[in-house]
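Journal club prep, notes for RB
We'll compare a predicted complex against what the paper describes. Inputs for the FE2/S2 (inorganic) cluster case:
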Amino acid sequence: MTTNALFSIPESSGHDMVTIAFEGRNLTVPAGISVAAALLSNGVSDFRSSVVGQAPRAPYCMMGACFECLVEINEFPARQSCLISVQDGMRVRRQLGASAINIKDEL
Amino acid sequence: MGNQSLTVIGGGLVGAAIAYGAVRSGIHVRVLDQGDTAFRASRGNFGLVWVQSKGHKLPRYARWSRDAVTRWPALQQELLQLTGVDAGLQQPGGFWLGFSDAEMKARCALLENVNQHGGEVPFEIMNRSKLVQYLPGIGQAVVGGSFCPMDGHANPLMLLRALHAGIICRGSEVISGVEVARIRFDSEKQEFETFSGDGRSWKSTRIVLAAGLGNARLAPQLGLNAPVFPTRGQVLITERLKPFLRYPMNKLRQTLEGSVQVGSTSEDVGFNDGTSTERIEWLARRAVTTFPALAYARLVRAWGALRPLTPDGYPIYQESSSCPGAFIATSHSGVSLASVHCFVIGAWMSGMAERPPDFGVFNGDRFANSK
Amino acid sequence: MTVEIADLVIVGSGPTGMAAACEARSLGLSVLMLDEQAAVGGQIYRGIEVASLPRTNILGDDYAAGRELAANFRVSGATHLGGAVVWNLSSDGTVDYVINGKSRKVTGRFVLIATGAMERPFPIDGWTLPGVMGAGAAQILLKSAGAIPTGSVVLAGCGPLLYLLAWQYFRAGIEIRAFVDTTSPSAYLRATRHIGGALRGWRDLVKGLKLRTALRQSGAAWYTGCSNFSVQGNGRAEGLAFSHRGCAVRIPASLVLLHQGVVPNTQLSWSIGAAHRWSPEQLCWEPVTDAWGRIGEAVIYVAGDSRAIVGARASAIQGRLTALEIGKQLGVASDIERRLAVLQRELRQHLHIRSFLDVLYRPLDEFRIPGRDDVIVCRCEEVTAGQIREYVELGCLGPNQTKAFGRCGMGLCQGRFCGLTVTEIISSARGVGPADIGYYRVRPPIKPVLLSELME
Ligand SMILES: Cc1cc2nc3c(=O)[nH]c(=O)nc-3n(C[C@H](O)[C@H](O)[C@H](O)COP(=O)(O)OP(=O)(O)OC[C@H]3O[C@@H](n4cnc5c(N)ncnc54)[C@H](O)[C@@H]3O)c2cc1C
Ligand code: FES
């Protein structure tokens, strides 16, 4: 769900900015902030769906403890977005349920 | 049976299955179990419901294991209906994996040997290209495997909960937080009195020792012999993953919840149920060698649990001759054998059935010299 | 694998860790500091080295104080490894950590656990909805990204951090829709019994009072003595409902910030099998240590909030004290006794106000032990309070058996967000004190790690 952003970053001007893509939408955000902060200040309020009940979830602790902020980053599942800094060109998606591991046949 | 009652010492998988079996035979049962942090193999095991290669040195045990996996669905159904708890049984068949031609050869010989002695356990040896059809994504290092269509797995924790709930549903009791210290037998009254360390006591006409590692200390009090010793198994478990493994393997399985369990080591470290980084890393390497894609799965927990093992690895089921009505049961395959522990051993030890045929081989007396 | 060796390995780069490192370096000890965050500062001084001046002004003097500590740390000569996730600690001082996708080992002659605190769980109806966060989390957003709420925000709960955040928002010009205070009215009375101690720590007291006064004048709707919380909303927070003086109140809000104090982060100390005591004052577990923070006979020490909640400044002093004590063990310094005495006096100054705060901001039972059966306790595995009580009925005596019966605590957060709640639910259901209920058996990895990271 993308709604009015819960947060904003007023002092953005004067910062180096980077661009990340969230589900195809480009977001330009200050360099150095966490992916979670970038999403929360750009109208993303629902980061993932829970593993058991598929309920929407979003960051709760912002300090790496609760694992509610999981997203897929550069096709890599279930990353803790509150611990990872934005990088230019990063591709971010919601984490839907459990991680999928990518089976490639090694014949 | 009105005045008959049974005390079961130990509420792990073995004790709970026998207790539940006894309860359904119509006797009142009281299970005495330790507290929250006891050594409890039933809480730390691998969850296989397994028959392939079992009993290659003891044909009776091969047949016992086969009976067990055949009767598991009935137990699963009954517990689900009674308690609403799903023990998670799945029996799609299971694989053992080989990493060298020599290993494959030895495996084939072993499985044939089981059947030459009347095991009647079907199996198929597969080469790598056949294996890949069943287990896509398997690593290059795997050269082949053996498949047994009777193998499967379950959720041992849900099984334990279902058994406890079943015992309670049918009007018997589970008393936790009891450290059994002493048992007295009164032969006149044919009565057992069980004393806990904190001074409580309970009377019954029958008693089953199913205290896992605790059996070693309790057995001699009732004229029984159970030299069980701890063998540590370390196990890894990953975060939940979307389903990708259809079949359980002897060293790796995906649970119904989605987490991948990787097991297990066999270590002789006494009563230390901790973990070691070397073994954790070794298990991780082995898992990734088996399924390279697991490199990106996250390890959530590693644990050590103590298997209650006998010197020859086979179970002990026996009635005491000096204290009739006292029984002992120790097995290190408490998940696989849960159904027969319930339907067969439970009925026997509660006095509702005869001892199963050819069970002398499971007497603890066979270890008389290996104290 | 080559194993590095250091005199002192410190886990955590908050005030405790940085201060301990500075002190240990002044004694000439080799120091390696590990932290999963990229930059130093811990939670309290998050972003301290990069925060802009306006941001620092909003955050206030207590935050700015971290700057000097961080600067001293940077020139101390201690090695700092950011992005290092400690996944195992052994009593012999060996630490396993993952950095850049690889597991590494370091052995400390001594190890200091300085992993600080985390916010106490606040298990109420709807607390898993997006838009509900810890107040501490919102503060981290402010410190690390300068992010402030845009929509309508409600602050609910109690404790100094909640007031501080409100004050910081106030200074940032943010309008708070409502402040829903759960401090029990009778707590003020009980707390006055500890006013003597608090007066000796009068600076803190005055600061606290000023803060409250400023806030009450800020115009935010202020509700005190509230109960029966429920976050309402469909798929995300839309409002907070509660009872206030017998009336049902509902405040629309897209952001609900909850807080009822912080508790020690004890994962590492539990994992090495340390004894822990239940603190009836702070309602949490604390590792049992000697006066210097040493755990048993091990070479492992714990200081700051991960030993017991004392606050940032006292934590820093404890860090220094522990470093000095370790220096003494290693036989390196001469005037240690004098330095210890000075610091101990200073520490006492900071601890005066503690019992006053503990009594005043004691989180109410209903916010720690959900009465409603449908409240989620384990966020990861979605286990409810009612289910825990059901397992107790089945005979479970403690959290390890309820975990086995219902997966509570088996998720990725490894029990961090349900552990205290589960202990207390079982405690109240059985009528047995938490000390006798116990806690989860914490096992490695201390943080989840990828299997590939363990393959060297
Ligand atoms: C790593 C590992 C992997 C395994 N994998 C499998 C598998 O895949 N499939 C399989 O079938 N089996 C497996 N097992 C074996 C299985 O877990 C055991 O067979 C089974 O749990 C044994 O059950 P138990 O009840 O005898 O012992 P436990 O589970 O140890 O229970 C004994 C109980 O007795 C209680 N007790 C002890 N002393 C006293 C006393 N004095 N007073 C009161 N109570 C007492 C204890 O508290 C405990 O609850 C595995 C075991 C391990 C360790
Ligand atoms: S928000 Fe809690 S772990 Fe990221």
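Talking point for the session: The interface with chain B takes residues 88, 90, 94, 96, 103, 105, 273, 391, 394-401, 404-407, 410-412, 414, 437-438, 441, 443-445, 448-452, 454-456 of chain C (CB under 8 Å).
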